[in-house]
Specification:
7-stranded mixed β-sheet, globular, 5 helices, about 45% helix, about 180 residues, 7 strands, alpha+beta, about 20% strand
């Protein structure tokens, strides 16, 4: 199949150098095919994730320490500060607690949980593919060791002040008088 061939090409230095030496017309065709596959692969990843309630294992992170209390909270999640190997992290924790759902019947409970879980996985998969100067990189998914087995999306921590100083084009809020 195509996967073993591509793995060989991208992991073997000689094969990779041969790929880079292809003539322009062949390279153009290859780039066009790769672009098409990228779009289809992303769609397939999202569909497989939704169908299986799984995400790529390469997203899994371990060994993160997090603060005891969230920095901020919203409808879908809470933001915690974390750290790994001296690097500060932002942890967006999936917010769905079992005790909040105790009054709901099991079938509806499973449906709600699955809907939120897929939205979370979808965000992870899409974020992994986004690269832009105004977006923080996605590091991965971390499972908290708490009783609820909650999961979180992990990115670098950036203070508001640091972000605003790095992004001079972002309009600063000035309250009206």
């Amino acid at each position: 199949m195509l996967a073993p061939f591509l793995k060989t090409v991208f992991s073997d230095k000689t094969e990779y150098k041969n790929l880079l030496r292809l003539e322009q017309r062949t390279v153009q065709s290859l780039l066009d095919v790769m672009q098409t596959f990228e779009r289809y692969l992303l769609k397939a990843m999202l569909r497989l994730s939704k169908q299986s309630a799984l995400y790529p294992s390469s997203y899994i992170l371990t060994g993160i320490k997090r603060d005891a209390y969230p920095i901020a909270s919203g409808y879908f999640g809470e933001i915690f500060k974390g750290e790994i190997n001296g690097r500060k992290l932002a942890l967006k924790v999936f917010k769905l607690y079992a005790n909040e759902m105790d009054k709901i019947n099991d079938l509806l409970k499973a449906s709600i949980f699955y809907t939120y879980l897929f939205a979370f996985y979808k965000e992870a998969i899409l974020w992994r593919h986004l690269v832009h100067p105004n977006l923080l990189p996605f590091y991965g998914i971390y499972q908290l060791g708490d009783t609820g087995g909650r999961i979180c999306l992990v990115s670098p921590w950036m203070s508001k002040r640091k972000y605003l100083s790095m992004s001079p084009t972002i309009p600063k809020y000035k309250p009206s008088t």
